[in-house]
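Entry 14. Ran structure prediction on the chain below.
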Amino acid sequence: MASGKAVITARPWAVACFLLPALLLLGALVVYPIGYSVWRSLYDASGDSFVGLDNFQELFTNDAVRTALRNNLIWIVVAPTLATALGLIFAVLTERIRWGTAFKLIVFMPMAISMLAAGIIFRLVYEADPDRGVANAVMTTVNDAFTGSSSWPDAQPRPGGPLTAQEDGSYLLEEPVRAGEPALLPLVAVPQPELEDAAPAAAAAADPGQVSGTVWMDFTRGGGGSENAVDPEERGLAGITVQAVADGRVVAEAETAEDGTFTLPAEADGTRLRLAADSFTAPYNGVEWLGPSLITPAIIGSYVWMWAGFAMVLIAAGLASVPRETLEAARVDGAGEWQVFRRITVPLLAPVLAVVMVTLMINVLKIFDLIYVIAPPSTQGDANVLALQLYLSSFGSEPDQGLGSAIAVFLLLLVVPVIIFNLRRLRRENQR
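Output, structure tokens:
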């Protein structure tokens, strides 16, 4: 049988016929676009005037492009590392559980979703309103479970009324209170929906041995009623902490009942009443995920959600080829599971981990869809990356395809070292 080299030497025309379609496609889809981009990067926005390397100089002077460069550096360091680490953890942990296959399927499922669809999903996940955004809904639920929520965050003193707002958010009664003379502490601005389950307000009973009073919503729906007086249709504000303060010290405190009434012991006689600030603090609404400071980490989180399954599948395939006798020998010699993982499993998986890391690094250099969809217009500039800037520069409101082509060439130059590293690694593995 003739060797492959002999066939190539004897029938070069046959080899050319087989390679010609692939070469034509490669030239049309790869070589020509690269060549045209390099040529176009040397001209101005109109494409008429030759500007040399001015477009490449602008890459490092344009604020938007510099932000994109910085974010790309964050992406290329953080995203592949997190996705690979999670994939490694999932692959190792699911190897020993009975339902590992089902778990792997669930983790890998996001790979079946397009970047556009994933962006829409996480745009909703990161909504600031806890009633719509899952991330903030979870955070507010956990926060309320440990810290609780204020009773009436919207309540305010009636303008010109006996209560005045303090710097710490509390409301202070101007005049000292006396035992046997019920105090009136009117509040306003509570939305009607919050009052639907509130009980009718009641005037506190006079007791010479106690300080009593009422905290209520001093507003009659539809008009009518008297200011600073408890009217029949007005509602009591329950759960408000009332403190008796003398010389800056709290001598007694109580919590208002369902009808807004409260009673304090005789020690409160002659003190000034204060409605505690924690009864009126604004509710915790979570984190501004799509704000300038968190937009890039938030989008990286969505990327890791998608690609951790990819890393897990490749690493699990490499883990299946790890010699079990090597692991068992280490355990017999007294090595713990962490030592086996760190000193044996990870070194044996190093080639697979390198493949995953290199693949994800190339992938994040091209990231565009998630940022374009998730980041709102107000913070898109803070989340900007080179691929997005390429699109905005070439096809945005002020198109400059010279600058866009320069960004494309720069991206190619960034990818080339990674590809060379990968090719050398593959060549070394083939020589073993």
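The chain has a mean pLDDT of 87. Will compare against last week's run tomorrow.
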